[in-house]
């Protein structure tokens, strides 16, 4: 009782669900974000990925850590807030989103487009943070590299231009360029690159005339996506100079995900860190996050400086075989979120 629930169609068959406990005020809303989609199961599981099996205090299953546990926590906290019968002094929202694991994070972007969250909202995405308060995110660029050359018989390779060699040369040069960058963030460390896919050529005895690479580039504040594009451009032109006759093209194929950092002195940060101390008995430090989240999307698109990540589980368990979340993390996260909501929305 007291909650309103809306379904927002993001794509055919895929909808965000937004539940709201209304305050009747214009104060910035407290929005708890949790995505409903997961990555594919993959091979090699020793437990039922859809079983929700609990063994030795651990709950197993695909999405248990990333991030069904976080979704359960915020649903429980919102329900308890509604059952209290008290009128909050700001709206309290649970935003259950789709496509967070996709290339364009359409669910989080839809919340912004519809005005559900904005620059002033207090935002917590309950991703697995090991019960730490996450205030900084690495940015993310997915880049496709296409190299072209010239077909020839492998017995006369001098008559062709080897596109696979050009791709390999790009890998070497870009790795070196990333390693030489001076940027180093106190929480997030250095920028990194992963060459996550490579393909090319048509047959063993033919000089390849095409190759394709996919790159995952993570950049800490205060780096910009424009800097990444300039670095890719430079390496591409160097490869073309090294291997005459080849060409190297590139394009970004994810949406804009720049690095972001919250205001560490914001009321939300102070309330959450106090709640962590009170519930855990220790002082968990502020931390950075190497992955992108719906909270990062809110910061990047709106300029919000009060968007955090906090939740049960550890990122090291996300996307893994035999994914799990500790039960005690779920219970502590619920208590911490409830204490934060009480402080910022009721007291």
Features:
27% strand; alpha+beta; 347 residues; 4-stranded antiparallel beta sheet; single chain; 7 helices; 6-stranded mixed beta sheet
Walk me through this protein's architecture:
By secondary structure, the protein is α+β, with helices and mostly antiparallel strands. The protein is built from seven helices and 18 strands. Helix 5 crosses helix 7. The two termini are 21 Å apart.
H/E element order = EEEEEHEHEEEEHEEEHEEHEHEEH
Record field, number of beta strands? 18
What's the gyration radius in Å?
23 Å
Q: In which range does the helix fraction lie?
A: 25-40%
How many strands, which pairing sense, and closed or not: the largest β-sheet? 6 strands, mixed
- Low-pLDDT stretches: none
What is the molecular shape? elongated
Number of helices: 7
N-to-C span: 21 Å
Largest beta sheet: what is the strand line-up? 1-2-6-3-7-17
Mean pLDDT across the residues is 96
Task: Give the helix/strand class.
Answer: alpha+beta
The portion of residues forming beta strands comes to 25-35%
Question: Strands, helices and their partners?
Answer:
Blueprint: E1 3-11, E2 14-21, E3 30-35, E4 54-55, E5 58-60, H1 64-83, E6 92-97, H2 106-113, E7 122-125, E8 133-137, E9 139-148, E10 152-153, H3 163-179, E11 192-200, E12 206-207, E13 210-219, H4 225-242, E14 247-252, E15 260-261, H5 267-280, E16 286-289, H6 294-302, E17 307-309, E18 324-326, H7 327-346
Parallel strand pairs: 3-6, 3-7, 7-17, 8-16
Antiparallel strand pairs: 1-2, 2-6, 4-5, 5-18, 8-15, 9-13, 9-14, 10-12, 11-13
Helix pairs in contact: 1-7, 2-6, 3-4, 5-7
């Amino acid at each position: 009782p007291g909650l309103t629930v809306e379904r927002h169609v993001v794509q055919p068959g895929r909808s965000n669900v937004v539940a709201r406990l209304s305050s009747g005020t214009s104060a910035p809303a407290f929005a708890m974000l949790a995505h409903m989609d997961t990555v594919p199961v993959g091979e090699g599981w020793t437990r039922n990925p859809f079983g929700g099996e609990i063994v030795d205090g651990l709950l197993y299953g695909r999405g248990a850590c990333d991030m069904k546990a976080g979704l359960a926590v915020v649903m429980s906290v919102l329900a308890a807030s509604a059952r209290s019968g008290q009128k909050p002094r700001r709206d309290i929202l649970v935003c259950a989103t789709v496509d967070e694991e996709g290339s364009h994070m359409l669910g989080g972007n839809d919340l912004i487009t519809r005005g559900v969250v904005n620059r002033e909202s207090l935002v917590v995405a309950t991703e697995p943070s090991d019960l730490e308060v996450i205030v900084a995110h690495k940015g993310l660029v997915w880049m496709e590299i296409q190299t072209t050359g010239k077909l020839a018989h492998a017995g006369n390779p001098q008559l062709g231009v080897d596109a696979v060699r050009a791709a390999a040369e790009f890998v070497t040069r870009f790795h070196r360029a990333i390693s030489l960058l001076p940027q180093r963030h106190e929480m997030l460390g250095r920028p990194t690159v992963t060459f996550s896919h490579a393909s090319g050529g048509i047959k063993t005895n033919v000089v390849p005339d095409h190759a394709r690479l996919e790159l995952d580039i993570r950049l800490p504040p205060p780096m910009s996506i424009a800097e990444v594009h300039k670095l890719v451009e430079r390496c591409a032109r160097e490869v073309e100079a090294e291997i005459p006759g080849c060409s190297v093209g590139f394009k970004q194929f994810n949406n804009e995900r720049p690095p972001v950092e919250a205001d560490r002195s914001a009321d939300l940060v102070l309330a959450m860190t106090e709640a962590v101390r009170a519930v855990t008995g220790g002082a968990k430090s502020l931390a950075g996050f190497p992955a992108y989240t719906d909270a990062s999307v809110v910061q990047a698109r709106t300029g919000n400086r009060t968007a955090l990540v906090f939740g049960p589980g550890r990122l090291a368990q996300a996307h893994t075989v035999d994914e799990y979340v500790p039960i005690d993390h779920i219970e502590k996260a619920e208590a911490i979120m409830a204490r934060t909501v009480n402080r910022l929305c009721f007291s």
